[in-house]
Amino acid sequence: MRVLVTGATGNIGQSAVQALVAQGHQVRALIADNPRALHPVFKSQLVERFAGDIRDAARVQEAVLGQDAIVHLAYIIPPLSDENPKLARAVNLDGTRNLLDAARRQAAPPRFLFSSTLDLFGRTMDQPPPRRLSDPVQATDLYTEHKLQCERWIQESGLDWCVFRFSDVPVIGFRAPHPIMYEIPLDQRLETLHTLDAGLAIANALERDVWGRVWLIGGGEACQLTYRQFLFGLLAVMGIGELPEAAFTTRPYVTDWLDTSESEALLRYQRHTFADILREVEAMSRFQRRLIPLVRPLVRRYLLRMSPYMSKS
């Protein structure tokens, strides 16, 4: 199958390309920038690196030509979507429109898999988990407003479509900190999904009966935890240690656990646990971990200065 992947160099995108290539698909990877280091899979004879931006309607038309399926992953997410709403609208809404318009113009329109988010369920800590597809959805910020709008467009497009509402997919490696880390209460329920499992779910979907439906895609019980376990686990393997509770908000956030029993039964993608994620982050952060003991007090002070709650306490 010929598959166009947008956001191909992103966290889920690279894993999707790997899984698609492993299953023998011909991948056209839409790459907007020029990354210095691409995963070795992009050198595969099954991968066509296609320079282009989904904001460019003409270039998108060329990218869609001849494809059997589109995997749409390119999106501006928080915190950047809040910091640059103009860019977010251009990529998230205009870019998705460009893809849908180009797909509908094809003599044989490609199938369309759209990456969405569990954030659409809103703040649900007052409700017993897990979240199910029968639960109501709502926009709580610009990002979820865009996701909801795109889901509607896709469902009304006339194409063969499916929507994957993903749980949190952590980056495997050292991440630059941002103040948004303090906007999630430590007792918040959170479900992770290994990036390779996300990619596998996408690749498996192309050959399964997923079309015309929304699916919940998460890591399952072995990836269901609290934000305290998630964040402090990552900080521990990086050698930084726990941060004071006073640094974090107590206002509920838009994450929760998901009922992924149906998607797992069909797609068979849940291969990793959160413990696996921690082990891989620790291995990828080995160099930084050697340096942390020398500067741990400075690193912790730097991190805590980002918290708007510590500064008020």
Strand order of the largest sheet: 3-2-1-4-5-6-8
Task: Work out the helix count.
Answer: 10
Rough shape? globular
**Number of structural domains:** 1
Proportion of residues in β-strands? 5-15%
CATH class: Alpha Beta
Average pLDDT metric: 94
Which radius of gyration do the C-alpha atoms yield? 20 Å
Distance separating the two termini: 57 Å
CATH architecture: 3-Layer(aba) Sandwich
Number of strands: 9
Spell out the CATH superfamily. NAD(P)-binding Rossmann-like Domain
The percentage helix is 25-40%
Largest sheet: 7 strands, parallel
Supply the helix-strand structural class.
Answer: alpha/beta
The poorly predicted ranges are none
Model description:
- With about 325 residues, this protein is an alpha/beta fold.
- The chain has a single domain (about 1-305), classed as 3-Layer(aba) Sandwich (Rossmann fold), CATH 3.40.50.720.
- The protein has helices spanning about 10-20, 55-65, 80-85, 85-105, 140-155, 195-205, 225-235, 260-265, 275-285, 285-305; strands spanning about 1-5, 25-30, 45-50, 70, 110-115, 160-165, 190, 215, 225.
- It has a seven-stranded parallel β-sheet with strand order 3-2-1-4-5-6-8, sandwiched between helices. Strands 7-9 form a two-stranded antiparallel ribbon.
- Strand 5, helix 5 and strand 6 (about 160-165) form a beta-alpha-beta unit.
- Helix 1 (about 10-20) packs across helix 6 (about 195-205), helix 2 crosses helix 4 and helix 7 (about 225-235) packs parallel to helix 9.
